Amino acid sequence: MIDILVPYEQEGTKAIVRSWLKAVGDAVKENEPLVELETDKVTQEVPAPADGILGEIMLDTDAEATPGALLGRLRPADEAAPPAPEPEPEVKAAEAPKTAADDNARPAPANWLSPSVRRAVQEHDVDPVNVTGTGRGGRITRNDVERHVEARAKAPAKTETPKPAAPPPPPAKSGGVTSVPHDRMRLAIARNMLGSVTTAPHVTAVFECDFSAIMAHRKRNKDAFAASGASLTFTAYFIAACVEAMRAAPAINSRWFDDRLEIYDDINIGVGTALGDKGLIVPVVQGAQALSLLGIAQRLTDMIARARDGKLTGGDVSGGTFTISNHGVSGSLLAAPIIISQPQSAILGIGKTEKRVVVREVGGVDTIQIRPMAYVSLTIDHRVVDGHQTNTWLSKFVEVLENWPLA
């Protein structure tokens, strides 16, 4: 038998088995998608490790799948299938008295609903009786519910088994209430955020930054970058400035362990990307210290597009050593503290750019000018660094952006 394992590059996140794409007994080809896993960051397919026949499923739908865990096993394609087990005699529920253990027993396969399937049928107002289950033993999967909903939309004339009208709820004392079940991504994000603030003492420092120089450079060069397949966004400048700041305060690019601090040569910068109501995903620009501004912009253009199309792989969101939260794109001037992505040591926040009146010295004389300004913040794990390293890092970051050459 050939083991099918959960990929190790889960970056410490908890994966959940979303659905099996094959059933026991199905023939599969090497690298053919076999099972879908879902984490707080990405949904990924696990391919078949070889040609064969799916012989066993060890972790079924909604089971937690830690890195390296055994998902199932393949039988070599040329190996004869084992004899089918004798069917168990059917026992009518009415013939056996119910015991306390029955409450924890598995119901009939066709009617058994996992937590995610229960949420799906409630969300779409689906009667499970009308859904054909394709899971093991006829179990209903979330994909079955989604297919049923799609079919129902295409054939509105077909109606489901009517349900008796429920009694009206008691009148609310104040306003209406909309109940929205948590999806897996939101629950995973919640666990990660709580774990981070519980683990690390968060401290935030805030500087102000003049974006005049990078705005002038972008205006002059964005068309040339576009011709090279890159959208020249401000985030590309932020990543480049982060690289220079890491050289001034290397401990920011680190991870805390109980017995040591690991400071990394590679600067792998994650960029928080909003997915609307679906939450947040953080694609990682690997090895930013080796990239030019054009290289950074090209990498960002590709990764952000794939993030919004749901096409990122597990490797695209793993290995980060530092994170940028560009929260200002949605209008906020300052957010503090921005929660650190564990086990990283810091996270950068970029606030909204707005024109503000500032004082600048020109020829030895103070002048009042209008400049595009933004608050930039660095939230650090105070176990790792102190105020000196934090302010050194931010000073260098601001200096690089404010003195960006025009050419």
Question: Could you characterize the architecture of this molecule?
Answer:
The chain is an alpha+beta fold. It has helices spanning 115-124, 142-154, 184-199, 212-227, 234-248, 293-308, 387-402, and strands at 2-5, 15-20, 27-28, 33-38, 43-47, 52-57, 64-65, 70-75, 202-210, 254-257, 260-263, 269-271, 273-274, 280-281, 284-285, 322-325, 346-350, 354-362, 365-381. The strands form five sheets. Strands 9, 12, 15, 16, 17, 18 and 19 form a seven-stranded mixed β-sheet that branches. A four-stranded antiparallel β-sheet has the order 1-8-6-3, with no helix packed on it. Strands 5-4-2-7 form a four-stranded antiparallel β-sheet, with no helix packed on it. The chain folds into two domains: 2-75, OB fold (Dihydrolipoamide Acetyltransferase, E2P); 190-402, Chloramphenicol Acetyltransferase. The model is unreliable at 88-111 (pLDDT under 50). Strand 13 and strand 14 (280-281) form a beta hairpin. The longest helix is centred in the middle third of the chain and has 16 residues, at 184-199. Helix 1 (115-124) packs parallel to helix 2 (142-154), helix 5 (234-248) crosses helix 6 and helix 5 (234-248) crosses helix 7 (387-402).
Task: Write the H/E string, N to C.
Answer: EEEEEEEEHHHEHHEEEEEEHEEEEH
Largest sheet: 7 strands, mixed
Give the overall average pLDDT. Answer: 82
Structural class: alpha+beta
Strand content is 15-25%
In the residues, how many domains can be counted?
A: 2
CATH superfamily of the largest domain: Chloramphenicol acetyltransferase-like domain
Shape, please?
elongated
Number of strands: 19
Task: Pick out the low-confidence regions.
Answer: 88-111
Evaluate the radius of gyration: 27 Å
Helical content stands at: 25-40%
Number of helices: 7
First and last CA, distance? 61 Å
CATH class of the largest domain: Alpha Beta
Named CATH topology of the largest domain: Chloramphenicol Acetyltransferase
CATH architecture classification of the largest domain: 2-Layer Sandwich
